Amino acid sequence: MEKELKRLFGHDTFRSKQKDIVEASLNNEDIIVLMPTGGGKSLCYQFPATQVEGITIVISPLKSLIQDQIDALKKKKINVCSFYGDTSFHDKEDLMINMGEYKYLLIYTTPETLSSNYLLVSKLQEMYEQKKLKRIVIDEAHCISSWGHDFRPSYRSICNLNEAFPEIPFIALTATATPKVVSDIKDNLNLKKPRIFSQSFYRSNLEIQTFERDAKSKDKIVNLINNKHQNQTGIIYCLSRKNCETMSKYLNQNGIDSKFYHADINSSERIKIQEDWSAGKVKVIAATIAFGMGIDKPDVRFVIHHNLPKSLESYYQEIGRAGRDGLDSTCYMFYNYQDKIILQKMIQERDISKLMDIVAFFENIVDCRHYILCNYFGEKKDFTCGNKCDNCLRDKSNLEKIDITQHAIDIFKEINFMGPKATKNGVKKNLKDKYDTKLIDRIIVYLISNKYLSENLFKNYYDYWNERLALYKKCQLVIDDKVKLDNFYTLKKVKKVKELNLFQEPELDFDTDLLQKLKELRTSLSRDKQCAPYMIFKDKTLEEMSAKKPKNSSEFLNIKGVGPKKVKDYGEMFLSVINF
After folding, report:
1. What is the DSSP letter of 107?
2. CATH of 206-394, one of 3.40.50.300, 3.50.50.60, 2.130.10.10, 2.60.120.10
3. Distance from first CA to last CA of the chain, Å, rounded?
4. Any idea what DSSP says for residue 414?
5. With CB atoms 3.0 to 4.6 Å apart as the test, which of 178, 250, 259, 281 could cross-link to 276 if both were Cys?
6. Which 3 state secondary structure label does DSSP give 87?
7. CA 547 to chain centre
8. Do β-strands 170-174 and 399-402 pair in parallel, antiparallel, or remain unpaired?
9. How far apart are CA 111 and CA 126, in angstroms?
10. Could you write out the DSSP letters of every residue in 530-557?
11. Residues forming beta bridges with residue 236, ordered by sequence position
12. How far is residue 326's CA from residue 544's CA, in Å, rounded to a whole number?
């Protein structure tokens, strides 16, 4: 299989769990795959599709995600196509004629198309009866679960596929699924005994840093990019379309070339922005969550959240767009509780608990953030990352464990005294002479997260959302001294964390002048072929070339990321530069 992998995809070996999944697929087993963003999910069904005579149907939620995969496969000379309701008559006719002749190994479509297009469904039924339909793939499978962070009703329409095609094996893939969501996927797709494969959710090359968002946060972002990420590729996620535009404008005013991206921009312009970013013509994108799904750009060195995502699933998926090439990358969060107030009015009631989970994640100043993420997704690991998150980098002598029982009782009294008009700001104002206001702020959030206080939202005179605080019955346990709140941590003083690089891979001793020449050649070729530079060779591959300096085609083929087709297409040109 490794020879075929190298020939078709240019990889020397399978990544963790990929080979096991491929073998299970070729054995026609039902499979559920949990694999972090960048872990290589697509290969798990693309490779098996090239090894059997028959058709693989891939169901995916977004056309943009599908198009990215189709473009990449076509560059590898793998026959693939897509089918939607608005596909041209000529393309539909071509597919219907050639489907039974195995012209296309993979056919991509959306759940909406599959549930409503009689022509496609009837043709698939015909292929099934002729034993030519080999596998059904459900990508972004968490969308099928009502417990998932991105539930889509259209995915429910494909739940009966197992009944329509009872002898066809399924593979359901997702990057973000809790144990409850995995169970829901299994039940909804009616998979009796699926093999479940899970890669570790720990991304050791990602460093997580958290800052408090304030009036100077934009300046901090400018400084971060200029000082640590100059000329590197990154994404800045913002909550609203207006914030994206404001952020991009501010970056451009400060000498950082950027574009904004959101759903209000027309489709052709969005495509152009994404292509320019993928090709390295634009380094930084300020975007809403509309940007990123399906993007396979390996060299994203930083992801910045200027606002709070709506769930830990969304956060994990978005930071997963950094460092897909395995090199060290950094994820920054500029956290402010006010985002929770805004998001609460934008999401459904059933998603409030997920919102509180991510609030608790960033309020936590003690536990390893990678540890929290792994355990949230059901990977029960007892570890700390050591140097890859702000909590592990923090000087522990600055942490102080305090008993906040009396603080909480005083807060309860103030809320009871203020009645239905109790607000967080009102409580802080009344207690400012007794306690530090920032401490009270954090304690109130802690009490809300742990269901001692309820928080109801209203719009004030200036049309901004504010909260009203009220007491849950549970607070009586604290008042009656039946429960002690003595496991709360605060900071004695703020001290800049020390950055370590224990997890960084040993650097290759490459020729910097040669590396620059190779990058220039790659850029020239990418312009001629109108594709992103990394689709020719990734940075890591060029670094290995400049270090090992292959002398012939055989040595060139031994470089990671180089396959026979790339030797044929580019070998002579790159070897001439290396051996000049």
Report:
1. E
2. 3.40.50.300
3. 36
4. H
5. 281
6. coil
7. 32
8. unpaired
9. 19
10. TS-GGGT--HHHHHHHHHH---SHHHHH
11. 286, 304
12. 14
Q: In Å, how far are 96, 114, 483 from 405, measured between CA atoms?
A: 70, 57, 8
Q: CA-CA distance, 551 to 578, in Å (whole number)?
A: 8
Mention the CATH class of domain 400-491: mainly alpha
| Residue 80 amino acid letter | V
- For 224, other C-beta atoms within 10 Å of its C-beta total 17
Question: Options 3.40.50.300, 3.30.750.24, 3.90.960.10, 1.10.10.60; which CATH number does 2-198 get?
Answer: 3.40.50.300
3-state secondary structure 156-181: HCCCCHHHHCCCCCEEEEECCCCHHH
The rounded distance, in Å, linking the Cα atoms of 484 and 514 is 64
Q: Identify the residue whose tokens are 């999401």.
A: 347
In DSSP terms, which residues pair with 174 in a beta bridge? 34
**Closest listed residue to residue 181, CA positions, set 378, 356, 417, 24:** 378
* Residues 6 or more apart in contact with residue 402 via CB below 8 angstroms: 486, 488, 489, 490
CB-based contacts of 128, cutoff 8 Å, min separation 6: 164, 165, 167, 168
Q: What is the DSSP letter of 351?
A: G
Tell me how many degrees the CA angle 141-146-152 measures, rounded to the nearest 5. Answer: 60
The listed CATH number (3.30.300.20, 1.10.150.80, 3.60.10.10, 3.40.50.300) that belongs to domain 512-578: 1.10.150.80
As given in the structure block, the two tokens for residue 393 are 């980098």
Verdict on whether the full-model pTM lies above 0.85: no
**Residue 438: count of CB within 10 angstroms of its CB:** 12
580 residues of the chain, pLDDT tens digit each:
899 999 998 889 998 899 999 999 999 999 999 988 777 889 999 999 999 989 999 999 877 778 888 888 988 999 898 888 788 888 888 888 888 777 788 999 999 888 888 888 888 999 999 999 999 999 988 888 765 555 667 777 788 888 889 999 999 999 888 888 899 899 889 888 999 998 888 999 999 999 999 999 999 999 999 889 988 999 999 999 999 999 999 998 888 889 999 988 887 898 888 888 988 899 999 998 767 665 668 899 999 999 999 999 999 989 999 998 889 999 999 999 989 988 988 887 778 889 999 999 999 999 999 999 999 988 887 788 989 999 999 988 889 999 999 999 999 999 999 998 899 889 999 999 999 999 999 999 999 989 999 988 777 766 666 788 999 999 999 999 999 999 999 988 544 444 434 223 445 778 888 999 999 999 999 888 888 788 888 888 898 899 999 999 888 988 877 877 888 899 999 999 998 7
The secondary structure of residue 199, as a DSSP letter, is -
DSSP letters along 272-316, please? HHHHHHHTTSS-EEEE-TTS-TT---TTEEEEEESS--SSHHHHH
15: burial class by Cβ within 10 Å (0-12, 13-18, 19+)?
Answer: middle
